[in-house]
Design goal:
18 helices
Length: 491
Amino acid sequence: MRKVKYERVPPDRAAEYLRTEAIEAITSYPRDREFQSVFVQTRNATELVQPLPADDVEKILNQAHEDLKAGSPAQIEAAKSLGLQLVVPTALHQAMRIVEQAGPETLESLLKPKTADRDKAVEQGAAAENWRDHFRSVDQLEDGGIRFLIDGLFPEGTTFIGALPGAGKTWLGLSIAKALCTGKKFLGRFNVPQRLPVLYLIPEVSSRAFKKRVKQLDIPTDPNYFLCRTISEGNTLMLDNPIVLEAVKAMKPVIMLDTAIRFSTSTDENAASQNRKLVDDIVALRAAGAVGIFAFHHATKSSSKEAMTQENTLRGTGDYAAMCDAAYGIQVNQSLYDNGRGPLEILVVCTKPRDISPQPKPFTLISTLVGDEGQLVDVLAREKDFLIKDEGDTIGEIKAAITKIVMKEPEIDIREIADILTKDYGFKTSKSAVNRQMHNDDYKKEGPVGPNGKKTWMCGTIQLLNLLNKSEPEKQEATEVLQRNQEELAF
């Protein structure tokens, strides 16, 4: 504690007194040069019989700074005058010299990580003492079933959607976003239980290009329900960025990551350890208040020729599929699309339902279709959303495809038919499903032996081997007969 002075300092001791006060000010308030000056000037004005000029006081303060070099005699004497014993080992003296030369900013930058580590350790220690608060008993768990963002399809939590480039990921993302932020049925069919805000992060697309799509689908302009960030707004904000986390805390939104890999720092998609950061960041978004997260990801190249699975629709580490609540794959019907010459239809398949029961059935989105005059019609422009193909239409197309296949190869077996339907026609099917369909349509492999020594297909009483060498008009007539017979059987 400072000793209170009741007698003012005489002129012959003024400089020595102010030097002592300057040293005390410097050692007590080392980072505040302005307060040091106020401290010494106040002592000059109140404690001296004859105060010195302010400039002289500043000179004394400046000289005290010069004298107080690490380990200098002046510092040692100053410490003694304050009742301290200062011993500076050689190594410490050298270290202090290095710090002095580097400057206070360098010292602060060196100490900051250690301070952060110390604070984190203290925080973790406090949490550990209250460990029970971090777990739940059975009665403390939430009651009720799974909550859906879109009934029967997308649960709360994280959904990964995989597809090849150009398969319509962004259009699907905007269609989902439109349903969520308007509260209207997804594709006019699937109920949206609650209207929710959407935060759409798309660092691969410019502002103008994205706005054109958003406007085409009539996404609401209300910023309380739809916000986005494109490449035009600057560098990608990573998911642990404070700006993103604050937005999530304020909005409690559904987040669209288009595409998810742009928010990863990994150099190898297959390395689980490198991609763990993205998984952890998505979990942190949920903890910060995100109701749901849709992460759009790339599929493997081989998926274009295979039935969609969890493995081929999500490229890279299996951690993505493991951590999500649902996973979907989308695939363009390439045989129908024919490089843009035909209509664009997109098959959507749930490859991981986790707790969704019953598992969502595959469905097909119509992006373009053939008009009455044979022209291609842009459904997204006309309808402001996708159309969804009715299940009956899909079955009819499968029947027609089977007819074409068996007329071309009357000896073909069911497994091969299923493979062709999947690879060439884009229908996700199986041998058993094809077998059931062909049985219902009165196909039997009881026809005469073909060129390869195998029994051939019959449909009702029509032997398909007999059609192999017929002209195209005759084959068309036979096809129409087969289809009428199948319709009668269905009736």
